[in-house]
């Protein structure tokens, strides 16, 4: 942030916060709540996911996770709300409900795990470890 402040300088019309995406600012401040949505239909897109959850509060971001190879939905996504209360309301209302013909499961999103440069186990069997 300090480097961004130096780059922008004292310009009153342009602040360093206006250069950052709103989701980054919200996640830095800790005022948003992210939900995991599983069981999505393969034709559900970001807009459809956002519209389905927007009736429960202000949706900051809705993202359906796509497969890089087939460019098809992986069947799950994430919805970020502006407040914890809105997210909790959406979780209780949408969990187990039908969306685009499929029953969706909603839970609070968990933080990304850090593999510290290692391949995740899902990419192959674990390397054998020498007993010492």
Envelope shape: globular
Computed over alpha carbons, the radius of gyration is 19 Å
Mean pLDDT: 79
**Distance between the first and last residues' Cα:** 46 Å
Order of helices and strands: HHEHEEHEEE
Secondary structure tally, helices: 4
Detailed description of the structure:
The chain is α+β, with helices and mostly antiparallel strands and 132 residues long. The protein contains 4 helices and 6 strands. It has a 4-stranded antiparallel beta sheet, with helices on both faces. Strands 4-5 form a two-stranded antiparallel ribbon. Strand 2 and strand 3 (73-81) form a beta hairpin. The protein is globular and about 55 Å long. Residues 23-29 have low confidence and may be disordered.
Write the layout of secondary structure elements.
Elements lengths: L1 H7 L13 H8 L3 E6 L7 H8 L5 E8 L6 E9 L2 H11 L3 E2 L2 E2 L1 E4 L24
Antiparallel strand pairs: 1-3, 1-6, 2-3, 4-5
Feature tags:
132 residues; alpha+beta; 4 helices
Give a brief rundown of this model.
This protein is of the alpha+beta class and 132 residues long. The protein is built from four helices and six strands; from the N terminus they run H-H-E-H-E-E-H-E-E-E.
């Amino acid at each position: 942030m300090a480097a961004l402040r130096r780059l922008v300088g004292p310009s009153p019309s342009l602040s360093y916060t206006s250069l950052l995406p709103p989701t980054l600012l919200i996640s830095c401040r800790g005022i948003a709540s992210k939900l995991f949505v599983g069981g999505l239909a393969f034709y559900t897109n970001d807009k459809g996911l956002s519209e389905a959850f927007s009736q429960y509060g202000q949706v900051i971001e809705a993202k359906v996770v796509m497969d890089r190879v087939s460019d098809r939905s992986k069947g799950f996504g994430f919805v970020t709300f502006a407040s914890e209360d809105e997210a909790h309301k959406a979780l209780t209302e949408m969990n187990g409900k039908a969306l685009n013909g499929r029953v969706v499961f909603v839970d609070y999103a968990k933080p990304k795990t850090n593999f510290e440069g290692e391949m995740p186990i899902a990419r192959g069997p674990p390397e054998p470890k020498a007993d010492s």
